[in-house]
Amino acid sequence: MTKFTDPVFQAQNSLRADVNYMMEDFLGAEGITSQEIEAIGQGIQTGVQSLKLRRSEMAWRDLPYGQASVVEEIKKFAGAARERFANFVVLGIGGSALGPLAVHQAVNHPQYNELSREKRGGPRFYVLDNVDPERFAALFDVIKPEETLFNVITKSGSTSETMAQFLIIRSLLRQVLGERYHEHLVATTDREKGNLVNIARAEGYHLFFVPAGVGGRFSELSPVGLLPAAMGGIDIDGLLAGAAYMDKWISESESLWDNPACLRAVLHYLALRRGKNISVMMPYAEGLKLFADWYAQLWAESLGKRFNLKQEEVFAGQTPVKALGVTDQHSQVQLYTEGPFDKVINFLAVDRFRQVVDIPKDFPEIPGAAFLGGHSLNGLMEAERQATEYALYKARRMNTTLFLPEINEFSIGQLIYLLEVETACTGELLGINAFDQPGVEEGKNATYALMGRPGYENKREELAGAAAKLERFLLRRKQA
Hints:
Number of domains: 3
CATH topology of the largest domain: Rossmann fold
Shape: globular
Radius of gyration: 24 Å
Strand content: 5-15%
Largest sheet: 5 strands, mixed
Strand order of the largest sheet: 1-12-11-7-10
Structural class: alpha/beta
Oligomer: single chain
């Protein structure tokens, strides 16, 4: 038995969900009543039951299980690569980048890349998740390609941003390393479809596969996220154990009130019906900062849909906003406490930080400084969170908190899985498909057209017509 499967360890590292400050009992008329929840009970049961019945259609729900051979292959590959390479670089965008970044920042040392090789135990870790030319070029001021392993991640094998980066890196590696360039590339993609898998097989890259039916924003517990995690020295067995623990909790809950994912989904759904069309994710831990970024994609891309499952126009969705405690108490919280009643604030809190930093007792003659002495930054962080929670409660603003007993692989696996199921359940209640992203395609197609991809000539003409129309409009304004 590993510590991750030990019942005592699991109990000590089990997430907790506090939804009290969503309810009428605390917020008065601004809160949700138990009667409201019961009034849509049929819809809730239909949504939850639908998730159970359609589990076979959601391959990401089975990622905590059945990957034993893949996990062993990842660990073996990463073990050798961590010894060999000085740098590890992810080339990806969306879920292929946000998930690996969030997990890396959560579990690993805050100054990971600045540590000595001895303290890191492996290569420096970078993610290129954009095509900004200055940022891209700047990476090679601090790393050498011949000392670097590049992980190209794109399920479709045709993501323009990732493939553009790949083409540049491949060319650079060939110049520097000659015939051995393929040893510095590892691809994570679909097993059968797309350009990347064919290129990788033809040129001899090591390959890992995204399981069929697993979309990008739900792929962190697949090789998309597990390989970067393992390359960063993270225990991927712990991530999967945490996700499995949360899956069992959710799947075996007989009451909605005992099911943290679906209960949170119901409350967000009811809040949205009451005009709360903004969902703020606000971690009170620097290590969880990038989970707000990952959540933003998960929530926005899954729930922002023009049509429901009946093909009726509904323009569904709730806008995600990123914040960080305590930093954004001094920037955004003013709006949240006194601005429009259109938000739900989601706190992420940590019971036990991995470091304790005491505040010295000094300046006894200055009460405004002396009172801090004898406390710790840990206590101050929690006091700040509770104070913000109280300020929102006093202003009758909906807020909810997920508590992580400690930031470790097991708790992070739980958090990933809970938020994924919460998103899926919210989609069921909204009656939309939470697993596609048709609104992204127009921008992709326009990019293909502007960059001259064959087969997009009609789209290019359409864009030219729109540009000409704008030019005529601007000319008329100038002449007027």
